[in-house]
Design a protein that fits this description.
single chain; about 220 residues; alpha+beta; Type Iii Antifreeze Protein Isoform Hplc 12; 2 domains; 5-stranded antiparallel sheet; two-stranded antiparallel sheet; about 25% strand; elongated
Amino acid sequence: MKRPATVAIGIICGIVCAGAVFAYLQSVKGEAESARAEALDRYGGEQVEVCVATRDIASGEKLDASNTTAKLWLADLVPSDAVRSVRDVYGEQVGTPIFEGEVVTSKRFSQGERQIDVPAGLSVLSIPVKDVQAIGGSIAPGQHVDVYATGAAETELLASDVAVVSSSNDSEAGLGGGSISWVALAVEPRSVQELIAASQKTELYLVLPGDEQGGASDEA
């Protein structure tokens, strides 16, 4: 008589355990759905997975697990040509620089589409900047800017009346759309070393001067 009773107790315990596990899974699912709903409510849109650079990637480098990862991004902010699957671009060589935190896009793999004309007597270099440092990302080729370096102690004018040659969002420049991550400038050769060093140690800001401001900058 004891054996059937033991079996029955075991079955009952199994049912209770299964019920507890099911209840736990439902609770976890509910919490996940709640967290997702909260995120959508807080950030205002659906999220999608995209490929993002985990460090600065130079032109000619190949993409792999050491420099890219998958991250969730607000769908409304994802570029139309964004790379969605990290696996799709592993081993691919980029044609233009990609900076840390930037969403990888298909145009980064384009090579030979555009040649940069270097003005006589000048050098062209690219500097890392964010939207807030480049007039909201609206900097466009052909404009002339003043370059300021700002650190913890001071803000310094590094170059005046510098021509913008290209940028990471050329297709959207002037429209205020998309995120900018770098700008190519035509500068005096003697300024190249100073600008590169400043870009590594400080934040660089691009300023569009008015006529009077431009004159003041030239005097400075």
